[in-house]
Amino acid sequence: MTENEQPKDGLSGLEWKDGAIPVSRRFDDPYFSLADGLAETRHVFLAGNDLPARLRDGFHIAELGFGTGLNMLATRLMWAATNPSGTVHFTSFEAFPLSAEDIARALDAFPEARAVADDFLAQWAKGQRHIELPGLVLTVIEGDARQTLGQWQGKADAWFLDGFSPAKNPELWSADLMAEVYAHTQPGGTFATYTAAGHVRRSLAEAGFEVTRLPGHGRKRHMTAGRRA
In the 3-class helix/strand/coil scheme, how is the chain assigned residue by residue? Predict the structure, then answer.
């Protein structure tokens, strides 16, 4: 254990790097970028899906991997800053939901996001997974996305593909699951992800997406985005 690491928490399945960054013991991977996770979210998922230009009332975002809810809160901040009325829908698929306490602790690293998280956290702590917030309706579907996504009746205008690293969490990047993502995407809908792994890009292309490699965030050279024609 390095001097920057904290003792592992056997109850939550987390360890805390630098006392602030949650790292999954199950996947040995951090929940957000070590180099400003909020900035990465804005670069990869918001800009990668061209959301500043596309968000509108009724827009539906879907996500693989809810984690700390940082992507949802970044979306909420963008929507509130640009559109005083209307509602965005945000559906996330999460197999291992964190406790409200762990989410709150993680979000303390991002005061801007934490400042708008209290109403979400209060409902999350009560076990609610369909949460109505000002300007955004959140639904978190618990369970293995390989089973739950196929049962979902919705279609997304934009996807945030934000599972743990493909090398450590290959189940969330399989060709079959990418095909389900495509099937649950509106015509003209998009996806974005931080990873540029070749097998992930090939699976997305084989599913039917037009796939583009873009500059990544921070030290990551590349990321991936795409569109359903």
Answer: CCCCECCCECCCCEEEECCCEEEECCCCEECCCCCCHHHHHHHHHHHCCCHHHHCCCCCEEEEECCCCCHHHHHHHHHHHHHCCCCCEEEEEEECCCCCHHHHHHHHCCCHHHHCCCHHHHHHHHCCCCEEEECCEEEEEEECCHHHHHHHCCCCEEEEEECCCCCCCCHHHHCHHHHHHHHHCEEEEEEEEECCCCHHHHHHHHHHCEEEEEEECCCCCCEEEEEEEC
CB of 190 within 8 A of CB of 228? Answer: yes
Whether the pTM exceeds 0.85: the reply is: yes
Q: Does the pLDDT at position 24 exceed 70? A: yes
Contact at 8 Å (CB) between 61 and 160? yes
In this structure, are residues 65 and 94 in contact, taking their beta carbons and an 8 Å threshold?
A: yes
pLDDT in tens, 65-113: 999 999 999 999 999 998 778 999 999 999 999 999 999 999 999 999 9
Enumerate domains of the chain plus CATH numbers.
34-228 (3.40.50.150)
CA angle 102, 222, 15 (to 5 degrees): 20
